[in-house]
Amino acid sequence: MKIAVTGGAGYIGSTLVKRLVEGGNQVVSVDNLMNGDYGPLRALGMSEKATLHVADIRDGKRIEESLAGSDAIAHLAALPGLVKCRERPEEAVSINLYGTQQVLEAARRLDIGKVVFCSSAAVYGKPVELPVTESHPLRPLNLYGVTKLAGEKLMELYFDNYGIETISLRFGNVFGVGLFTHYDTVIPRFVRMGLDGESLTIYGDGTSSRDFVHVEDVVQAMALSLASKGLGGEVYNVGGETMEIGALARRVAEFLRNETGENVRITHLPPRPGETKEFSYNLEKIKGELGYGPRWSIMRGVEQITKFNLEQRALKV
Ligand SMILES: NC(=O)c1ccc[n+]([C@@H]2O[C@H](COP(=O)([O-])OP(=O)(O)OC[C@H]3O[C@@H](n4cnc5c(N)ncnc54)[C@H](O)[C@@H]3O)[C@@H](O)[C@H]2O)c1
Questions:
Q1: Which CATH class is domain 2-174+213-238?
Q2: How large a percentage of the chain has pLDDT more than 70?
Q3: What is the dihedral of CA 204, 208, 213, 218, to 10 degrees?
């Protein structure tokens, strides 16, 4: 297949492009390089099978040229995360909403029959029932979640009106070493703090829980969605393992103590306002309908991130 990947130079995107090329697909990535780097894919010698078009998804004419001839689109380009969207609200709406509509318009004009969209657990807001299923009420607590929910609605609209098979995937908290890893979310942050000799900081009493999903499992869900047939206007939770933040800190600290022989301390700060306390995913739908099964446990990922950090540090010496 020829697959177009918007945001193909980013953290999840470049990991997906690598997997798609390894699976025998031809890939075209569309990325404005605002937050991405195609170097790691070039270093693997993949630039012939995975060409990069440097373009903005809001430039309809340019992306139509880039996407022409594709069988399916994986749409990842976005202003990601609640902090960036809070700090740059106009850009959040412009990229995540207008940009998503431009990608769908290009798909319609070019007669591309499948679009897979990256959504987020942020569309749910504060859970009223756990574990969260896809039919849980949707009440985002921040602009990021609102733009992702609007993106899902655009996907449904283009399925209902034009028959484009759209799938929206609601990722949990993504972690793990990808091809281009540039994030400092809670798991990599705990590992970095522990290796730097800092205390692992927990906001609140540590009983808040999250679903953690490894980037390779996210890519598995995307590849299954791209290969699916006859599914359209669908949404799926994409998760891995649920853990309380306090338990996560204790397990990371214990792991690092065993690895380095150094003591790792944990400190508590007041809870941050507006954060959801408990969160866990029901994954029955994606397991049953797409055959998805997460392969990475949190602790296997912690081991991988620690090894990656130690290797990066050794290179800098
Ligand atoms: N990482 C997570 O925890 C997580 C969780 C839920 C959902 N998601 C979603 O997954 C997708 C990929 O996230 P990521 O973590 O790989 O982020 P990322 O920032 O690493 O990747 C996004 C890519 O999109 C590109 N981009 C941004 N704006 C663009 C534009 N206007 N035109 C063209 N390219 C543009 C960036 O340069 C970057 O390479 C995003 O849609 C994000 O919202 C991520």
A1: alpha beta
A2: 100
A3: -90
CA 38 to mean position of chain CA atoms: 17
Residue 182 CA, closest ligand 1 atom number: 20
**143-166, pLDDT tens digit by residue?**
999 999 999 999 999 999 999 999
Q: How confident is the model at residue 316 (pLDDT cuts 50, 70, 90)?
A: confident
Structure tokens at 66: 């880039």
CA of 234 to the centre of ligand 1 (A): 21
Just list the catalytic residues. 144
What the block records as the tokens of 202 is 């927990």
Ligand 1 is surrounded, with C-beta below 6 A, by 7, 9-13, 31-36, 56-58, 76-78, 80, 95, 99, 118, 120, 171, 173-174
Annotate 99-118 with three-state secondary structure: HHHHHHHHHHHHCCCEEEEE
Q: How many Å from the N-terminal Cα to the C-terminal Cα in the chain?
A: 43
CA–CA dist 97, 190 (Å, integer)? 33
Q: What is the pLDDT of residue 178?
A: 95
Tell me which CATH homologous superfamily contains domain 176-211+241-280+296-316: UDP-galactose 4-epimerase, domain 1 (3.90.25.10)
